Predict the 3D structure of the following.
Amino acid sequence: MTVRTKNKPTLVHKNRRPLETEEEITETFYSGCYAEVILSLFVYKFAGNTGVSAALTGVRFMEDGDSLGGTYKVTDDDWGSDDDDDFLD
């Protein structure tokens, strides 16, 4: 299988606000979040090959979910206490 495209999918938040910066995108989407996707299906016949393919044209973040692995989404609970002065001892 080969996956490639020249066009980036449209990425939006639940309220349909476009996510434009790399920081917004990486803070919103992660392995395990729930999303609604728009796929464009099409058939092709090229150079003797015939098949069916799909293009990812849009992704809308819907809600947080349990991480499936890969990168970990850090929360405030992951950090130590600000009152912990002896963390090097």
About this structure: The first helix runs from residue 22 to 28. The two ends are 53 Å apart (CA to CA).
